[in-house]
Amino acid sequence: MSERETWTTRVGFLLAAIGSAVGLGNLWQFPFKTATNGGAAFVAFYLVAVLVVGFPAMLAEFVLGRRTNVNAVDAFEEMGHRNWRLVGGFAVFTGFWILSYYNVVGGWVLRYILGSVRGAYFGDPAGYFGAVSSGPEAVLAQAIFLGIVVGIVAFGIEDGIEKATKVMVPSIVVLMIALAAWVATLPGAGEGYAFFLSPDLGTMVANAGSIIPFAVGQAFFTLSLGMAIMITYSSYVGEDDNLIFDGGVIVVSNTLVGILAGIVVFPILLTIGAEITTQTGGAGALFVATAAGFGTLPYSRVFGVVFFGVVLIAALSSAISLLEVTVAYANDNYGVPRPYLAGAAGLGLFVLGLPSAWDTAWLTWFDNFAYQLFLPLSGLLLTVFVGWIVGRDAVDELRRGADGLGSFSDVWLWTLRLVVLVALLGTLALGVQTMFLGSDAAFFAPF
Ligand code: PFF
């Protein structure tokens, strides 16, 4: 078998992982969850969740990937536990499932870029969303988005993913800052920032029971955990990177982009006097509520193209990481050239995504399963494996290259074994309750 690729530089790995983390979860869900859950109070909960659940869980995936240098399924066998391959398989399945409808949303974004050029949605945003979000046009747009994703992954780690994300991630940051400056001139800007960032303790206290699982779920999704992405990406990492430091950089960058997204979105919403409720965060939030305000901005069409252009780049750099999970598995196991594998996986994704593209009700159905069941279950199983089954090896691996941060490894292990485990168990229990026992949705899912 030909030699397995690695990232050419550490920055290459970091940018690819940040590209994966920064996606629709940040640009759209984070601001809305914040706004509807007590503003800055939610940000505080979220930061804690990122620190004590997301960050340690990310390191767990890193350790598995770098230790074994293979795909997310075979990694378990390499760690000496063949039966646990099933858990890797489940994480890969979860990712595949999620990507099937993420591509559909990617297709919507493409349509909105075109729609911005013509100002097509300014007059009737809800009508435009209805027209492009389902049916044959949505299928076509899904296929185009997926084609771009397959095209990048087909080139491999160095020439495909690394080169692409090196351009994409800095572009996201620069363009977001430009958008933030653009909306700062709006009359509702001050009010928007206040709404987004000032704590409402009343809301927070009244809803603490649901805010905590929200925060945990958000931390998990936005960091691309439980889908085998971080196992796969870290399997291409060189020997002595400091994983703790790298994880910290990824987590902080991801959070900053989420906050930047709120700084862009809320001035627009408050200027047009949009009512912000939990419903606004559901399907079509970005596409209806926010897009409704674009028409009032100076150079509205240019703004629309740039805004949805950023969303497209973020969605693409996340989707490629998820396609790479499946392709890495196939590439490690079958002697078939990568472009064929990427194409075959793309075809499978296209078919699985057809119901979601045809009718948004299916998209919500797929998303509910992923968000309420598959993600927390997959995360939980990974946590049990790394924390309890191979804990000592995991600590050894984390220590490698960790420089001064090595002593942090034991704290990490116990945080994983206890805090992450309990948080994910709780999230899963709530998901099961919501899905099967008919309680009110405690989460609102990203789509
Ligand atoms: N962190 C990503 C996001 O916030 O959008 C999660 C993700 C979803 C990654 C879907 C990849 C993907 F295909």
TrEMBL record:
Principal location listed in the UniProt entry: membrane
Mode of membrane association: Multi-pass membrane protein
TM stretches of this protein: 12-30, 42-64, 84-102, 138-157, 169-190, 210-231, 243-270, 276-295, 302-320, 340-358, 370-391, 411-432
UniProt KW keywords: Membrane, Transmembrane, Transmembrane helix, Transport
Top-level taxon: Archaea
Cellular component GO terms, alphabetical: membrane
InterPro entries: Na/ntran_symport, SNS_sf, YocR/YhdH-like
Subcellular location: Membrane
Record-linked Pfam families: SNF
SUPFAM superfamilies assigned to the protein according to its UniProt record, in alphabetical order: SNF-like
PANTHER family reported for this sequence: TRANSPORTER (PTHR42948)
Protein name as catalogued: Sodium-dependent transporter
Organism the protein comes from: Haloarcula limicola
